[in-house]
Amino acid sequence: MTTNEILIAAKNDVLAASLLSTEKKNEALINMADALVENCEEILKANEIDVSEATHLSKVMIDRLMLTKDRIVSMADGIRDVAKLDDPVGKVYDEVITQKGLKVQKVSVPFGVIAVIFESRPNVSSDTAALTLKSGNVCVLRCGQDSYNSCKAIVKALKSGLRKTGVSENLINIVDDKTRASAECLMTANDYVDLLIPRGGKNLIKNCVENATVPCIETGTGICHIYVDESANLEMATSIIENAKTSRPSVCNAEEVLLVNRKIKDTFLPMLKGKLVDARINSNVIPVELRCDEEAYEIVGGTRANAMDFDTEFLDYILAVKIVENVDEAIMHIAKHSTHHSEAIITENSDNASKFTRAVDSAAVYVNASTRFTDGGEFGKGCEIGISTQKLHARGPMGLSELNTYKYIIYGNGQIR
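and the corresponding structure tokens:
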């Protein structure tokens, strides 16, 4: 099918999707999860093709692309978690009785057709399908060429779960056209696409935000900062930074910039180098490259940072390091360089924690915890369709409630104006 034919089919099923009962949606989700596991071998074979052809990708990006049996089981578990969540459709947000006796309700309703353009993370296809189905929407997926075979196999399995449930397969769709034309089609399909969500790198997001004529969510690149305050528990800080940087550096909630209070630099930076560089070399795992400003470089060496290093989402084992005078300078640096995704302060000073959380203008702001928790599953949303760094209509991890808009329903008994 052409992209336009897929959009027409998706739009034709919007009403059916919005009218599905909670029980039917949950049944479909369970069948979709089971189908993923049952078709695991077929999905893994398709993924092997993608990985074998991804010779242009770095090791961390290949890890982002690669599927394993455990990852597919985790994807299925994510779908089952969505089935356990409350149905967002029809929720009454507000109700008033007017002077004329009208009962006015503000009620959540689906958007309709949600298109998602993404790159090399196959799990986006199953997460999106689960969330759009439960929220009463229809999805159209447009993956990157790197992950096409994997996503196609995943969607094939998910559609078999829909068939088993007895609902239309067109509730979940994947675009076959891998050229730029299909992305442009989704961005300008005003008669068919009700919401567009790009998930990927800076260039993809910028292209969608600037060129889409359909409503578009800006899901941000993640230049995530951690500031270590003078009062911080340094053992805790080291542990948090190790997790935020190395647990999965290819994801948007990984730390990219470290800010260290000047009063603790001589004690803390050698501790950090020992953990992120020396210990990892001794364990035969990839060490973190520390790109340090001049003050930090004098203490631990590494690589001298240039100005662009503090405005780069590395998605790799690289960490930019800067020394700051205090929490105020940390806040000012973040305001200048942040992509408004996730930032953290490590501190035992409640006043500094309060100032940081109030002043930092990002979707998720942490005190004494890793930025890696900015994730739909970790926030209790089952999974996520993206992390919004804008302020309207959604911000942070987008789950079921963010995939509904609302309308007003008014009940009367003959009132006229």
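(Above: one complete record from the training split.) The chain has a mean pLDDT of 96.
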